[in-house]
Amino acid sequence: MFMKIIVAKDPKQAGMKGHEIFADALNNGAQVFGLATGSTPLTTYEQIANSQLDFSDRLSINLDEYKGISPDNDQSYQYFMDKNLFSKKAFKHSYLPNGLATDDAAEIKRYDQVIAENPIDLQLLGLGLNGHIGFNEPGTSFDGGTHVVDLTESTINANSRFFDNIDDVPKQAYSMGIGSIMKSKKILLEAYGEKKADIVAKMIEGPVTEDVPASVLQNHPDVVVILDEASASKL
Ligand code: GLP
Description:
Blueprint lengths: L2 E6 L2 H17 L4 E4 L6 H8 L9 E4 L1 E3 L10 H10 L6 E3 L8 H14 L4 E4 L21 E4 L2 H7 L12 E4 L2 H6 L2 E6 L5 H9 L17 E6 L7
Parallel strand pairs: 1-10, 2-3, 2-6, 3-5, 6-9, 9-10
Antiparallel strand pairs: 4-8, 7-8
InterPro entries: Glc/Gal-6P_isomerase, Glucosamine6P_isomerase, Glucosamine6P_isomerase_CS, NagB/RpiA_transferase-like
EC number: 3.5.99.6
GO cellular component, one term: cytoplasm
């Protein structure tokens, strides 16, 4: 296994490290950037947004999108990406799953094709409290492609902080599969805060198991993990 672990003082410093990894990839000719949502990537996106980096001839492909909410709903991942990155730093084209798709099989096929035609050079990941990456919850096969996910109670609860009412939290999402994530040339996973310390230790030091989706990263040849002091405290 090769995981490079960087421990920054806090999420802000970590975001600067994240920005450096994006800058290096861009300067080394990376064409396709896999992007993530959640609170974790925000400091990295902020640094990128405020930088001189130019992504206008590169592509981005996001990991996931809630099912059943429209792109202009302020809880959609499309809205999140527009607000936090794309409005400030545009890519030539940015792909996300279509949360309003009605034909699951067609949407899955479309997204898998997007990923196959545009191999991801650098994939950014956050980390769910139960070890999920994208929306690949525990038990997801390590080989799969895009799929519809029934979100676990842990994830629905964790995400309810962004919604007025827990009943408004979507129960399903489209997610890029672990097989596709693992095909990315390089992977950057970020995880911050004391709450993530246990799962970070399992991801890095525990057995590789579908019970902890992120543990699969131990099998990837080029992974960088950026932590802050709190999330690294149990290593
Ligand atoms: C959601 C997203 C994941 C993200 C996770 C952690 O479930 N689908 O991609 O990694 O939340 O979110 P946060 O970074 O806010 O802790």
